[in-house]
């Protein structure tokens, strides 16, 4: 595989951009090779600057559920661009988007569009704090909610002590208000409430975690969180930035029936353009300016191009049976990968839910951050590089989820399986 052009461009990028990238995971650090620079993509295929073609299971980290450059999405963007790219005033597409989101999520009565998932979660906790008049929030180890200060926290010496900062530049005064609990461990949350229940404004959680590999929240865990929030008068925030419209038309809350007070969205609802949203009960959302006093704004929020791409995407998902097809395709793919590992006596855990899946190299069950961290990341790095050689583009990091899109056909899956088989044979 020749990556001369990618390598040259990356050298140049390193001089001009921190780490040569605009988001850290793109630097491929954890898979031990220099990053690819991508040129174009269509359907489930992505092509780098050296014209190597890959079957893509990253899908821009989740947004591209219809595949790259879906014709209807592209058409919607083009038509929209010809009529103006931004007004700085409300356009009808924003209202249509709000209506689609409110229809799809029973828990969302009103919604505010923003420009990224980070903005959505940051704004949601501000709102939760304002609504409850409390400052502390609970987040879970291994869940990712974007890069706002409050979330950049890691475990201190003991769990449940206020965590320490994950990043320089984050004031300890801010992370001191974040309590870190263990995912799928209700006991750790109960303990936090026993200690600080009266000060906790909200629990924020990925109901299906997609940022420590794929780890679904257990029913018992999610129900327990809802009950604790009810008992202590704090808000439950489901961060469905990945899972919104990924597993069904709606979110994990539609599947489980567990109703959060606030929901954050992003990724798929922008159809590949930059978008985020947060929404929930009217009485809470009405605190947001200009109706209420919780300030939150955005020059490009509800941008027409992003709304056009998102609307086109959501309507296709709403009016077709793609979720069923993706279920079959990803079930088939992960089943085949399992067989390849089994045949070679490899230890592994494959987690899959709908079109999301993740391969861990470990002997033990994976159910939270700590158990995920036990897996062999060196082995994943090797697996990643070998599979890449064979034209398969997986996430260049162990703790990220792979996505099947509507554009992955059975033929692509056969090709993927054959490629993985060749890669594994080289790994011996
Ligand atoms: C990606 C992601 C975010 C952050 O979204 P950005 O658009 O990257 O800022 C927040 N929460 C979850 C669960 C995510 O996966």
β-sheet strand percentage: 15-25%
Average pLDDT, all residues: 96
Structural class designation: alpha/beta
**CA-based gyration radius:** 21 Å
Number of helices: 14
Distance between the termini: 20 Å
Per the CATH scheme, the topology name of the largest domain is Aspartate Aminotransferase, domain 2
Catalytic activity: (S)-4-amino-5-oxopentanoate = 5-aminolevulinate
Keywords: Aminotransferase, Cytoplasm, Isomerase, Porphyrin biosynthesis, Pyridoxal phosphate, Transferase
Organism: Syntrophomonas zehnderi OL-4
GO cellular component, one term: cytoplasm
What would you note in describing this structure?
This protein is an alpha/beta fold and 428 residues long. The protein has 2 domains: 4-69 and 321-426, Aspartate Aminotransferase, domain 1 (Alpha-Beta Complex); 71-318, Type I PLP-dependent aspartate aminotransferase-like (Major domain) (Aspartate Aminotransferase, domain 2, 3-Layer(aba) Sandwich). 39% of the residues lie in helices and 16% in strands. It is built from 14 helices and 18 strands. The protein has helices spanning 4-16, 71-81, 92-104, 117-132, 172-175, 186-196, 219-232, 252-256, 282-285, 304-319, 322-343, 369-373, 377-389, 410-427, and strands at 38-42, 45-48, 53-56, 110-114, 136-140, 153-154, 164-165, 178-181, 200-205, 208-209, 215-216, 235-239, 262-266, 276-280, 349-353, 356-360, 392-393, 402-403. The strands form 5 sheets. The chain has a 7-stranded mixed β-sheet, with helices on both faces. A hairpin with a 2-residue loop joins β1 (38-42) and β2 (45-48). It is globular. It starts with a helix and ends with a helix. The model is unreliable at 157-161 (pLDDT under 50). It is found in: Cytoplasm. Its EC number is 5.4.3.8. Keywords: Aminotransferase, Cytoplasm, Isomerase, Porphyrin biosynthesis, Pyridoxal phosphate, Transferase. Pathway: Porphyrin-containing compound metabolism; protoporphyrin-IX biosynthesis; 5-aminolevulinate from L-glutamyl-tRNA(Glu): step 2/2. It holds the Pfam family Aminotran_3.
């Amino acid at each position: 595989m020749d990556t001369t052009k990618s390598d040259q461009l990356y050298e140049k990028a390193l001089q001009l951009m921190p780490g040569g990238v605009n988001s850290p995971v793109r630097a491929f650090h954890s898979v031990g090779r220099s990053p690819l620079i991508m040129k174009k993509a269509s359907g489930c295929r992505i092509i780098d600057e050296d014209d190597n073609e890959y079957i893509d299971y990253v899908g821009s980290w989740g947004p591209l559920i219809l595949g790259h450059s879906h014709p209807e999405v592209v058409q919607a963007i083009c038509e929209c661009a010809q009529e103006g790219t931004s007004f700085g005033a409300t356009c009808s597409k924003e209202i249509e988007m709000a209506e689609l989101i409110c229809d799809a999520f029973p828990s969302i009565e009103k919604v505010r569009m923003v420009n990224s998932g980070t903005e959505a979660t940051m704004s949601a906790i501000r709102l939760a704090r304002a609504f409850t008049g409390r400052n502390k929030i609970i987040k879970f180890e291994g869940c990712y909610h974007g890069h706002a200060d409050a979330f950049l926290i890691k475990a201190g010496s003991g769990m449940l002590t206020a965590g320490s900062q994950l990043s320089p530049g984050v004031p300890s005064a801010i992370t001191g208000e974040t309590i870190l609990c263990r995912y799928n461990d209700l006991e750790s949350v109960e303990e936090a409430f026993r200690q600080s229940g009266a000060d906790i404004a909200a629990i924020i959680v990925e109901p299906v975690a997609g940022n420590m590999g794929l780890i679904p929240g257990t029913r018992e865990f999610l129900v327990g969180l809802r009950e604790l929030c009810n008992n202590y008068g704090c808000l439950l925030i489901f961060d469905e930035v990945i899972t919104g419209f990924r597993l069904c038309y709606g979110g994990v809350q539609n599947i489980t029936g567990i109703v959060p007070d606030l929901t954050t969205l992003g990724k798929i609802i922008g159809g590949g353009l930059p978008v985020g949203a947060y929404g929930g009960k009217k009485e809470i959302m009405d605190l947001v300016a200009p109706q209420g006093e919780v300030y939150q704004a955005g020059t490009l929020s509800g941008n027409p191009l992003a709304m056009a791409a998102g609307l086109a995407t959501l309507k296709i998902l709403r009016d077709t049976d793609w979720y069923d097809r993706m279920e079959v395709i990803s079930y088939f793919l992960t089943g085949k990968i399992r067989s390849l590992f089994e045949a070679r006596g490899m230890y592994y855990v494959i987690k899959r839910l709908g079109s999301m899946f993740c391969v861990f190299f470990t002997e033990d069950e994976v159910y939270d951050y700590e158990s995920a961290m036990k897996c062999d990341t060196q082995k994943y790095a090797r697996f990643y590089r070998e599979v890449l050689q064979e034209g398969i583009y997986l996430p260049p990091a162990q703790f990220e989820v792979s996505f099947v899109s509507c554009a992955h056909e059975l033929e692509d899956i056969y090709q993927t399986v054959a490629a993985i088989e060749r890669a594994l044979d080289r790994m011996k």
